[in-house]
């Protein structure tokens, strides 16, 4: 659960500075590609040559996780799926699983969210029903099936163990000078932040004032109480999107999905889009070559 001791807003210089705060071996929560992904931090982690990361997909993983896996940064993933969506399977994840280089902890969307909610509420577990009868119940020793204690009728329920990530990473359209960040309708990001020990956020624009004092913005604001530090990153979600600001770059994701099928193609991708400067990459159009 978030450390609430530090109340003063903290800002870092850039995504590279955030990546420096993520230690090797950390348990890192990442949102799905359709949410607000801190893709520039992901690239910075690759450049830092992070190792041994344990990723939690909330509830699924995509482009960012595949990039980290291909670059050798990841030891394990806990998630319900890893996919590039319309761009197809996640190629480096697929290769890593087939070669035995990656440990996969299978989960489901409800179990991931419920485990985070348990930590958010300060309890060791929360009950739900949906996975009863699935193979996952027998494979996950940390999921316990018990009899509903409130009835004498047969009524099995599953206890989802609390999930507490070391670090949450995501992007936001706005931060303000008080350290709050605006996540809009992506309320799962609030749950991730509430449940994680530390939360780092990149943002598109820094606003004056306090967004919590704005009646229209306040419902979509994550309080600075839950934000360890924030850093600017223009187009920091690219090639993924930020709603009402820029769309997912479907052409680029399709390009990545093609070239990353081979190790050689993936290395060329890293050279072109990760190792070169952020400024140069962000000013370039999406690739049109196959």
Descriptive account of the structure:
With 290 residues, this protein is an alpha/beta fold. Strands 1, 2, 3, 4, 8, 9, 10, 11 and 12 form a 9-stranded mixed beta sheet that branches. Strands 5-7-6 form a 3-stranded antiparallel beta sheet. Helix 5 crosses helix 7. It is globular, with a radius of gyration of 19 Å. The C terminus is likely disordered.
Number of helices: 10
**Which CATH class of the largest domain is shown?**
Alpha Beta
Low-confidence runs (pLDDT<50, min 5 residues)?
A: 284-290
Can you give the mean pLDDT?
A: 94
Q: Terminal Cα separation, in Å?
A: 45 Å
Q: Beta fraction of the residues?
A: 15-25%
Helix content: 25-40%
CATH topology of the largest domain: Glutaconate Coenzyme A-transferase
Overall domain count: 2
Count of individual beta strands: 12
* Coarse morphology: globular
Radius of gyration: 19 Å
The structure class reads alpha/beta
Which second-level CATH architecture of the largest domain applies?
3-Layer(aba) Sandwich
The helix/strand order is: HEHEHEHEHEHEEEEHEEEHHH
